[in-house]
Amino acid sequence: MNETFNISSSPHIRAKVTTGNIMFLVLIALMPTTLFGIYNFGVQALGIVFLTVASAVATEYLFERFMGKKITIADGSAAVTGLLLALNLPPTAPWWMCVLGAVFAILVVKQLFGGLGQNFMNPALAARCFLLISFTGRMTTFVYDGVSGATPLAQLKTGESVNTMDMLIGNIAGTIGETSVIAIMIGAMFLLFMGVIDLRIPGTYLITFIVMIVLFSGKGFDLNYLTAQLCGGGLMLGAWFMATDYVTAPITKNGQILYGVCLGVLTGLFRLLGRSAEGVSYAIIISNLLVPLIERVTRPRPFGKGGER
Amino acid sequence: MNKCTERLFNGLIKENPTFVLMLGMCPTLAVTTSAINGLGMGLTTTVVLVMSNMLISMLRKIIPDSARVPSFIVIVASFVTMVQFLLEGFIPSLYDSLGLYIPLIVVNCIILGRAESYASKNPVLPSIFDGLGMGLGFTVGLTAIGMVREIIGSGKIFGWKIMPASYEPITIFVLAPGAFFVLACLVAVQNKVKAAKAKGGQQEAASGCDGSCASCGNGSCGKAVFSVEKQEGK
After folding, report:
1. Which positions ≥6 away from B170 have C-beta within 8 Å?
2. CA nearest A108 in B: which residue?
3. How many CB pairs under 8 A join A and B?
4. Domains of chain A listed by start with CATH number
5. Residue A286, min C-alpha distance to chain B (Å)
6. How confident is the model over B15-26, as pLDDT tens digits?
7. Membrane spanning segments where (chain B) (predicted)?
8. What ipTM does the predicted assembly reach?
9. pLDDT tens per residue, range A97-112
10. Residue of B167, B168, B174, B187 to mutate when probing chain A, most A C-beta within 10 A
């Protein structure tokens, strides 16, 4: 019998979950979307995905190398950021835009604020907005099957009718990863099943968004319009994969619900009243900024603490 | 005369208002969309600063202590109004691009700060040079930020196209967020240079630091801050 006793402070029993294997699960969950994007937009999309992931990982490695920090590329968080950014780029994005976006996401948004766990907003989305503001033309010109045209969401905004079935499957113009709702849902179900994410944030987000559309779009409960709004743009990708980012979402349960409501309201406002057709990325990064406040108002009461009687 | 050159050096490098004192951030972030705007704003501020420092220094024995801030503001505002009319008359293009930020020079904290901390306590000639140094330091800061933003954000410098035709300007750099990026990077660079210098022992010699922070009245000493951070790091 072993007579040695190890003395250590709690916790004594730890879960086997690490950043590395969560990120690995997220990467697997993003695979259907990525593969569909490559199938849909051809080999150019593959190039963009590869280049963006590679530059994100390389930026992280080089920065940590030169700053003399621990190299954390093995945990896969940089790869996830790179992949999410690639899925948010149009398939016509030139190579330098991929590199610039990835460097901005990792260097400015993540590493300068202290690395993984310290970034105040989702790096991939911040980089997307950076590119969107800088190269509006390139970021909003979508080519599908050799024809450049408006996204279904933009058509919806101008009052044209859209094919909802195509939007569900993904045979539409858009960024690499946002077109196919089915592929995104496969990944999201996988994450839900593995317990990486739960329904609190995406659920409240989508429900609030539906309420916003029903109340304020002026179309009432028009199922076709509602489905098109839900399937169009980056809403699904954003709700399941980016709003649920552990670092930039609230940790309290009530806070997550409040955060979801906030996202839904902002997305609804941007889509209905905004100048551009899309508002998911801005809604998410603005809500990211509100997270410290949300956490402060929803701080749970310690067990046993008396009421104010 | 030695004191005057010391004042110039102080304003330009040692206490550069943009990069070290972090004063006057409003014009720094708002008007530096191009190098020429930065230069124009810097020089306009310099003129006002030199004149107001001179006059305030002349009147420093007359202005009562209790009414000094309103008096300073009246003096500064008069000079700003004059400069504004001159700009409108002679350089209308600059006047148009600076717009609202010219009258706002009145409340620029560099000007009031120098009046309060230097001109109201020192003779006329050093005060003039203090204003000149601070103003030129501000000009250098603004022009540097403007140049970087103009090159990246529109591929030009002072209006001349210098980047190749295939370069696509990163428009965000001429918008508000770009100002923060560029300012932060330039401050980081100059802090890096300063830190390297301080390690070489040059800064200690310059400020007469005997190594003991307890006897030192200089609260802005980088060394003291550094040692506090080090303790927290443990």
Report:
1. A100, A134, A135, B152, B153, B178
2. B181
3. 16
4. 19-297 (1.10.3430)
5. 15
6. 888 888 888 888
7. 20-51, 72-92, 98-115, 127-149, 169-189
8. 0.77
9. 999 999 999 999 999 8
10. B168
